[in-house]
Amino acid sequence: MLCRRLVLVPRILLLSPGGTLTTPLLSCERSFSGGSDRRKVSSYKDRLSSGIVGIKKDDAVALFQTMVRSRPLPTVIDFNKLFTAVAKTKQYDLVLGLCKQMELNRIALDNYTLSIVINCFCRRRQLGFAFSVMGKTLKLGYEPNTVTFSTLINGLCLQGRVSEAVELVDRMVEMKVIPDLIILNTLVNGLCLRDRLSEAMALIDRMVDIGCQPDAFTYGPVLNRMCKSGNTASALDLFRNVEHRKVKLDVVTYTTVIDSLCKDGSLDDALSLFNEMETKGIKADVFTYTSLIGSCCSFGKWEDGAQLLRDMITRKITPDTVTFNTLIDSFVKVGKLTEAKEWFDEMIKRGIGPDTITYNTLVYGLCMENRLDEANQMLDLMVSKGCDPDIMTFNIIINGYCMAKRVDDGMTLFRKMSMSGVVANTVTYNTLIQGFCESGKLNVAKELFQEMVSQGAHPNIVTYKVLLDGLCDNGELEKALEILDQMHNSKMELDIGVYNIIIHGMCSASKVADAWDLFCSLPLRGVKPDVKTYTIMIGGLCKKGSLSEAGLLFKKMGEDGIAPNDCTYNTLIRAHLRGSEISKSVELIEEMKRCGFSADVSTIKIVMDMLSDGRLDKSFLDMLS
DNA sequence: CTAGGGTTAG
Q1: Distance between CA A204 and CA A214 in Å, rounded?
Q2: Where is the signal peptide (predicted)?
């Protein structure tokens, strides 16, 4: 069933079929208080047991201080409970800081605390520190257990170093620690993260062979990877298969597939899987609802999205920041800024804190409506609420300035941003380079491109497209062709968009013959012309006065299976009007109308001009509408 | 206590 040689598998799995993989966790609980005096410690005890899920930074620090000052001292287990809760909120720096404080207060960390520290370093991609904590664990005389190892193995996997993770499993076995289901699941996850799906599946088969029953955690990452690669159908197949083999799937696996169906636009299928899950007694959670709400909104079913949110509140499934962000984003995307603002107020009313993404989304909405002053006020608001703007925030406003033809203001903000320590990325530079190109300041655009390279922000295909377009529009076709040459020599994958820009540039520079040669060479270059390519080329031929050639290309386009759009028709119609080929333009207009397109602004302008100087009859206007 | 899922920009 599988080819062992190709598959990365720890040695123990190849050597010990039929062996058991379960091992009890070592008990390392050590008490400082001896458990005698319970009265004085009740406040932090209550706090730890009454729920510290999703604990905020200030709360965590305050609770920690109370604990450190309590006499007798709380047990390490109590500290571990706090650290675990904080780690779950992904505040790894905070956990590390608190652990440091604990040491400074001469409270000994135990084996578990050290595992939590290792996990924090792993999550922060500081594997070196993680391994030295492992060394410290040994030096303190603790036996590393499966938790210590699984944490480190996960750290390696998160960095994409799966082979080393497998080696570590082998070393762990040498140290007489038997890999358990969690370790193997971690490896499966590591393989999935590197998109090595077939190896992951093979490892799962090996697990089954040696009697280690996979669970929802085993299949979760596999399903997720399939879904993220756009393969919902395969994921659904695997899902049904696993379900059929009586592996108990959980809310996460269901939600993974539900989300993928939502992303594919199969909202009905997603909803029926949601119902199926609930029927089986698996309760949907905030992730499930958030996916469904997002999908409803993308279909324009706002009331349904809002209703789902109300449902979840009724069912005591508390919506979080992401849930509101999803809803707010959907409203912003369709320009319903008022509704977005209402939901923003609602989330504040419910005590759910907006985050950078919430503010970015609202800033984006304001910028789209050219309300730049309000966007800047929103920026001030987020700063005043202690929510740090990130590169996305700045990119959105800079883009807003560029679209409002205020590239210089965009540049000022860019400099301010850099002073505040936020580092520009490729999108930032692309936006500004485009802004300068469109305002005709080609030299500034070129300088910025140089700055981008020297700052280590990698230009991508979009950067080049923006630059090529700018050069072509500003009469520097030769320079554009030089860059195109460089791009051919680089490893960059050129798409049809790049060629559309160049062909368009050639046509604008009245080099229609060159454009035609390039157009004809596209198949050789492995690039397929799209509707824009044909339209640009048709426009070029029209400009040259070769209406008949343009007509032939229009015909060929249809034969090549590319459907013309409104731009194609309007280009041809204008050319025929200019060439006084009235009857042909009437023919084209009727065909265009049959396709559901209509005359654009430029076409209407020509028609008006021709009506006023009498070259066209009034009946033409009726036919047009 | 260690492994899998949902939101933003050119």
Answers
A1: 7
A2: 1-22
Within 7 Å of a protein beta carbon, the nucleotides of strand B are: 1-10
Evaluate whether A72 touches A34 at the Cβ level (below 8 Å).
yes
- φ, ψ at A209 (rounded to 5°): -55, -40
**CA triple A347-A353-A356, angle to 5 deg:** 110
Helices (H), A315-441: 321-333, 337-349, 356-368, 372-384, 391-403, 407-419, 426-438
Q: How far is the CA of A71 from the C1' of B1 (A)?
A: 24
By residue count, chain A amounts to: 625
Write out the DSSP string of A438-480.
HTT-HHHHHHHHHHHHHTTPPP-HHHHHHHHHHHHHTT-HHHH
Tell me how far apart the alpha carbons of residues A139 and A617 are, in angstroms, rounded to a whole number: 96
Q: Are A232 and A257 in contact (CB under 8 A)?
A: yes
* Minimum-distance nucleotide, CA of A459 to C1': B10
| Contact between residue A480 and residue A492 where contact means Cβ atoms under 8 Å apart | no
| Distance of alpha carbon A422 from alpha carbon A78, whole angstroms | 38
DSSP state of A4: G
Question: What DSSP state is assigned to residue A17?
Answer: T
Encoding tokens for residue A423? Answer: 């580092």
What are the structural domains of chain A? 1-17+43-207 (1.25.40), 568-575+584-625 (no CATH)
Distance CA(A155)–CA(A152), nearest Å, equals 5
Please give the angle made by the CA atoms of A505, A510 and A515, to the nearest 5 degrees: 55
| pLDDT tens track for A257-296 | 999 999 999 999 999 999 999 999 999 999 999 999 999 9
Alpha-helix runs per DSSP H in A159-231: 162-174, 181-193, 197-209, 216-228
Q: A442-479, pLDDT tens digit by residue?
A: 999 999 999 999 999 999 999 999 999 999 999 999 99
Backbone angles phi, psi at A455, to 5 degrees: -85, -5
Least confident of A31-40, A233-242, A384-393, A588-597: A31-40
Would the pLDDT of A5 be above 50? no
CB neighbours of residue A264 within 10 Å: 15
Smallest CA–C1' separation from A154, nucleotide? B3
10 Å CB burial of residue A386 (0-12, 13-18, 19+) is exposed
- C-alpha A443 chain-centroid distance: 34
**CA-to-C1' span, A262 to B7 (A):** 14
CA–C1' gap, A292 and B7, in angstroms: 13
Closest CA to A567 of A601, A535, A537, A541: A535
Q: Find tokens 């298969």 and name the residue.
A: A241
pLDDT at A256: 95
- Is the bond preceding A221 in cis, omega lying within 30 degrees of 0? no
Q: How far does the CA of A512 sit from the C1' of B8, in Å?
A: 42
| Confidence grade of residue A35 (pLDDT, cut at 50, 70, 90) | very low
Query: Is-contact A602 A575, C-beta < 8 A?
Result: no
Do residues A301 and A330 lie in contact, with contact meaning Cβ atoms separated by under 8 Å? no
Report the distance from CA of residue A77 to the C1' of nucleotide B1 in Å, as an integer: 9
Tell me the angle at which helices A477-489 and A496-508 cross, rounded to the nearest 10 degrees. Answer: 160
Closest CA to A208 of A238, A176, A181: A181
Measured CA to C1', the nucleotide nearest A118 is: B2
